[in-house]
């Protein structure tokens, strides 16, 4: 294979990986009530079917980002595909809910290996003039997977059973493994000799785990209970120690010197806030239609399509526009569109709501996020030295996934926090929930509260995105590209 065609073939490899991992996560958003019913899970167990995967993905992405810089991306990417495919098969054989949760943790390791190496592989292979389009295609594939995941998952559960939301990953994984073995070139790591920050990563795991546990259980048993206090205390103590430790360890998990660049700092913070606000939209809408409207999984999957349709439409558009307009402008405009969508969802998620307005709100959230993500990712990846791209992407992915796991726990906590104890489990029971009209009104209030808070978070993300230093960003990108492609333009 010649050098000219390699980037395109590599993009096809990474697209299969993104498709595999994203399909798995998005299909579970509509499947949660079915899993809850099958395993007779309570509210906490239902939460952790989703949260276990998200939590460990968030932590392991940072670890694997550093490993890819040390040992190279090909081996780790292939390892991730193989592990993810094998565990997907095993998940469908789970005899009980806690076996499934443990397998989801192992599956998270495979998914983190794939996610961590995808963007650096693309960034290394494509020239700057084509990078925006390539990253746009990457986002487009992820958006398509988010679109297909609920539909495929809902259909398979409706026609077969819950096991197939894991088993349908297996053939995709096998194709991806074979294709990656053929296409990917061995590339040695650029930071050989460095070591993994074990203590730092354990601090992230226990600190973030404590916070997520507190959110996941606080809305169920109350905020002044010992488990919630312990979880919150773990977050504060491990978080403080992590910041102290990272300033002193020789090979830190997070290179805090990168945050001295305002553009890098603001781009990453807006990534986190966008993920925190947006990530639970599909899950909440899916639960809303199942509990309030008693829709089956396949019909619910159709109802949540507007989010990913919006992202799919936005991705190629912003890939084209990224070469004409600044990342600051595109990112901020994208977040502003999402904020309008969040506001519509806040207003219209009630028992007598128009499904049209709910659909429009979802579409705007997805379209705005699609406009935001590509230029923001490009900004992050091109404002760091080449040898630290794995770490930078690991940090970006960790913040995005951290936003996702906190968003899931936080939003479900908001929904259940306004409910009396006898109604809290009904959120996870879907069509099986026995609720009266008065109960539906209370449940609707919970959903509206969650979307109101997410609207505020999106407004905060807009302000943060606008604070990035546009002139310095352009200067850094120009300097890096002149170093990577010194003969460009001759």
UniProtKB/TrEMBL annotation:
User: Primary place of residence?
Assistant: membrane
Tell me which residues make up the Major facilitator superfamily (MFS) profile domain. 10-473
| Database matches in InterPro entries | EmrB-like, MFS, MFS_dom, MFS_trans_sf
Instruction: Establish whether keyword Coiled coil is in the entry.
Output: no
Topology within the bilayer: Multi-pass membrane protein
Q: Which domain of life is it from?
A: Bacteria
Give the transmembrane ranges.
47-64, 76-95, 101-123, 135-158, 164-184, 196-220, 226-245, 266-292, 298-322, 329-348, 354-373, 398-419, 447-467
Q: Which keywords has UniProt assigned to this entry?
A: Cell membrane, Membrane, Transmembrane, Transmembrane helix, Transport
Query: Which GO molecular function terms does the record list?
Result: transmembrane transporter activity
Of the GO CC terms on this record, one is:
plasma membrane
UniProt family annotation: Belongs to the major facilitator superfamily. EmrB family.
Q: Which PANTHER family match?
A: MAJOR FACILITATOR SUPERFAMILY MULTIDRUG TRANSPORTER MFSC
Q: What is this protein called?
A: Major facilitator superfamily (MFS) profile domain-containing protein
Q: Which organism is it from?
A: Paenibacillus crassostreae
């Amino acid at each position: 294979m010649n050098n000219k065609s390699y980037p395109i073939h590599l993009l096809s490899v990474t697209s299969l990986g993104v498709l595999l991992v994203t399909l798995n996560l998005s299909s579970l958003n509509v499947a949660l009530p079915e899993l809850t019913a099958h395993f007779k899970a309570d509210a906490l167990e239902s939460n952790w079917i989703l949260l276990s995967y998200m939590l460990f993905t968030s932590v392991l992405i940072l670890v694997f980002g550093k490993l890819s810089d040390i040992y190279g991306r090909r081996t780790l990417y292939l390892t991730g595909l193989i592990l993810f495919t094998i565990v997907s098969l095993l998940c469908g054989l789970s005899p009980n809910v806690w076996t499934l949760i443990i397998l989801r943790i192992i599956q998270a390791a495979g998914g983190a290996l794939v996610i961590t190496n995808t963007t650096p592989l693309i960034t290394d292979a494509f020239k700057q003039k084509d990078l925006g389009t390539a990253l746009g295609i990457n986002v487009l594939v992820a958006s398509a997977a988010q679109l297909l995941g609920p539909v495929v998952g809902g259909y398979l559960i409706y026609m077969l059973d819950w096991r197939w939301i894991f088993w349908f990953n297996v053939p995709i994984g096998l194709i991806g493994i074979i294709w990656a073995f053929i296409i990917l070139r061995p590339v040695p790591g650029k930071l050989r000799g460095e070591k993994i920050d074990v203590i730092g990563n354990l601090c992230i795991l226990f600190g973030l785990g404590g916070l997520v546990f507190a959110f996941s259980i606080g809305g169920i048993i109350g905020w002044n209970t010992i488990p919630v206090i312990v979880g919150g205390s773990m977050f504060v103590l491990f978080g403080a120690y992590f910041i102290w430790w990272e300033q002193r360890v020789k090979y830190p998990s997070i290179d805090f010197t990168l945050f001295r660049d305002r553009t890098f700092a603001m781009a990453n913070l807006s990534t986190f806030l966008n993920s925190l606000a947006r990530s639970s939209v599909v899950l909440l809408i899916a639960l809303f239609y199942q509990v309030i409207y008693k829709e089956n999984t396949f019909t619910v999957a159709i109802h949540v399509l507007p989010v990913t349709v919006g992202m799919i439409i936005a991705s190629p558009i912003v890939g084209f526009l990224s070469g004409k307009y600044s990342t600051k402008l595109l990112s901020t405009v994208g977040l502003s569109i999402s904020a309008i969508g969040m506001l519509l969802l806040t207003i219209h998620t009630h028992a007598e709501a128009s499904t049209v307005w709910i659909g429009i709100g979802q579409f705007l959230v997805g379209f705005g996020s699609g406009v935001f993500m590509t230029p923001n990712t490009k900004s992050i990846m091109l404002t760091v030295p080449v040898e630290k791209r794995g770490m930078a992407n690991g940090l970006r992915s960790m913040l995005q996934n951290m936003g996702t796991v906190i968003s899931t726990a936080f939003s479900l906590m908001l929904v259940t926090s306004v409910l009396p104890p006898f109604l809290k489990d009904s959120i996870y029971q879907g069509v099986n929930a026995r609720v009266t009209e008065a109960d539906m009104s209370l449940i609707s209030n919970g959903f509206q509260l969650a979307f109101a808070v997410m609207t505020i978070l999106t407004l905060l993300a807009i302000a943060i995105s606008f604070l990035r230093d546009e002139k310095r960003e352009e200067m850094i990108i120009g300097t890096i590209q002149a170093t990577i492609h010194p003969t460009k333009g001759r």
